[in-house]
């Protein structure tokens, strides 16, 4: 009884913001990576990727906004199954796609090879990646930036700054601080929580959602109890205002060029749940 009490106390324990990083477990695990690929390719739900009509519209806008054509170099961080990378390659861009999910990279490569597209897919953790050369456009799409801790974000922004061509652009999207207000702390439990998302084997799943008001961070902490193992997966989400983001960018030699409501160029609204940023390298005037 005593042991059960302590296990439940551990499950319900609120860690420090970004204390644990477990993204790899979510995206590269044999079972959940298959589920995630299904979500990427499912037009009914905007979960791992947005639906294909949105992506078509987004790639149309990106192509015109950033003058994508033959010879333009694009890096797509967290490219998943290549839904943006392959479309941009069809417009003539030379694309490098980076993702640590073997399953997604294999899907992206197979699709690209079938059409003879110019995409260099790299199965890597982007936190450790060192891309050679400079890029006219760097993408990080679908709120990936928000899953990173402050030091990981700094690491990525420094990489982006180094890898951008002098007039290159960085495009990414984030959760807005107004949507932080709509999140609530909850505790949930269920046999095979999320309809078997976490395992093929029977399991009991706990979800603890914690809010960090000062930091504007939300954690969905999943504890998955199977017959032979217990896993804890920490899904972090940082919420931003244009000002907090601008501050982070400026510390890494980048500045905001423009704001949009999404990566399809919809005009910015301060009431939206998300927003997208185009950033450039800061120009040094002497
Ligand atoms: C929300 S999905 C977005 C995929 C794609 N950008 C899209 O919108 O279709 C995030 C992607 O980032 C990848 N990812 C997350 N953290 C990563 C890391 N540290 N290194 C490499 N890939 C990562 C995941 O495997 C996943 O494919």
Rg calc: 20 Å
Mean pLDDT over all positions:
96
**Relevant CATH superfamily of the largest domain:** Vaccinia Virus protein VP39
Count of DSSP-assigned helices: 9
| Total strand segments | 11
CA-based shape? globular
Strand content: 25-35%
The portion of residues assigned to helices is 25-40%
* CATH architecture descriptor text of the largest domain: 3-Layer(aba) Sandwich
Bound molecules: S-adenosylmethionine
Given as residue ranges, the uncertain stretches (5+ residues, pLDDT < 50) are none
Query: What are the secondary-structure elements, in order, as H or E?
Result: HHHHEHEHEEHEHEEEEHEE
The biggest sheet, with number of strands, parallel, antiparallel or mixed sense and barrel status, is: 11 strands, mixed
Structural class: alpha/beta
The first-to-last residue Cα distance is 70 Å
CATH class of the largest domain: Alpha Beta
Give the tally of structural domains: 2
CATH domain fold name of the largest domain: Rossmann fold
Textual characterization of the structure:
With 286 residues, this protein is an alpha/beta fold. The protein folds into 2 domains: 2-15 and 179-237, Single Sheet (N-terminal domain of TfIIb); 32-175 and 240-281, Rossmann fold (3-Layer(aba) Sandwich), CATH 3.40.50. Helix content is 31%, strand content 30%. It is built from 9 helices and 11 strands. It has helices spanning 2-11, 23-28, 30-41, 52-65, 85-90, 102-115, 150-163, 177-180, 242-250; strands spanning 73-77, 94-99, 119-123, 135-140, 164-176, 186-191, 203-212, 217-226, 230-240, 254-260, 274-281. Strands 1, 2, 3, 4, 5, 6, 7, 8, 9, 10 and 11 form an 11-stranded mixed β-sheet that branches. α6 links the parallel β2 (94-99) and β3. It is globular. The N and C termini lie far apart (70 Å). Residues 23, 27, 40, 48-49, 78-80, 83, 98-101, 104, 125-127, 141-142, 144 line the site of S-adenosylmethionine. The site of S-adenosylmethionine has 20 residues, from α2 and β2.
